[in-house]
Amino acid sequence: MADSGPSSGPSFQRALVAGAASGLAVDLMFFPLDTVKTRIQSSAGFWASGGFRGVYRGVGSVGAGSAPGAAAFFVTYEALKRHLPETLPELKESPGLNHMLSASGGEFVACLIRVPTEVVKSRAQTGAYGASASSLDAALKTLRYEGLRGFYRGFGITIAREIPFTSIQFPLYEYLKRQLSARYLDGRRPNSAEAAVCGSIAGGTAAALTTPLDVVKTRVMLEARSTPGGGPAPSPSVLSFPGRLLTILRNEGPSALFSGWVPRTLHIAAGGAVFLGIYDFAVNFGRPDTAAAAEDAAA
């Protein structure tokens, strides 16, 4: 995988492969913790949704969405991070804003791939179509009862969760790496282990702050617009972000908006270390240190 130059950032191929590897690794490794978090946030309750049983239920959807979703994110993120300052020169003096905009663009593209698999995963994890339903069962029943639009249930709310999350995580991650390099490493680029620590801090911070958005997203994805029994569909106001937020506050209180925040924060803090540590290792594998260092300085 050749790079076009030290100041141009990683090549398309590097970002693609490194992103796919990091996304698949982190989602497979932490899938059980994600299942526990999803069941805690379910309106049916943790035990009714399966408790600690079958924590790998729905894992089949991970391979379909994690690798391509993460690859799409990093390809877009690296491209925008490199080219946005050329279009908007003021971003050269505001690296944090550049990282925020680039990460937001990358997240939007990734969600086009990730949301359908997230819907299937959430429903399989919580037994929405039966305790023994696999990812394939959940996908087929979603298609049967809701059509293709069912796979994008909660897309808007997912964007509303992911963009704030990413807008915190990636500027903080890049900032921590710059500070680590300048203060403690005599200008040396952080290695992959050090980048992993920065990724863990950034991911955990972003996860804790955006838990209410994650709760609303999970609830919407778990609702079926039409049910096998022919029950009435929830009203659009209830399915909207403000409607769902107000419903949770009214019926369950503010604490419900932070349900699952501990496993979510632990999951994403640990996942951030794996995700960004593996990405940093893979994207810089075989590159001269001078090329990687020049790229970090430019960022």
UniProtKB/TrEMBL annotation:
Renumbered ranges of Solcar repeats: 10-83, 94-179, 190-285
GO terms classed as biological process: transmembrane transport
Pfam families: Mito_carr
Membrane topology, record value: Multi-pass membrane protein
Cited InterPro entries: MCP, MCP_dom_sf, MCP_transmembrane
Domain of life, per lineage: Eukaryota
Record-linked Gene3D superfamilies: Mitochondrial carrier domain
Predominant localisation class: mitochondrion
Localization, UniProt: Mitochondrion membrane
Keywords from the UniProt entry: Membrane, Mitochondrion, Repeat, Transmembrane, Transmembrane helix, Transport
Cellular component annotations (GO), alphabetically ordered: mitochondrial membrane
Signal peptide from the UniProt entry: none
PANTHER family per UniProt: S-ADENOSYLMETHIONINE MITOCHONDRIAL CARRIER PROTEIN
Family to which the UniProt record says this protein belongs: Belongs to the mitochondrial carrier (TC 2.A.29) family.
Protein's UniProt name: Purtative mitochondrial carrier
Organism, scientific name: Vanrija pseudolonga
Protein encoded by which gene: SPAC12B10.09
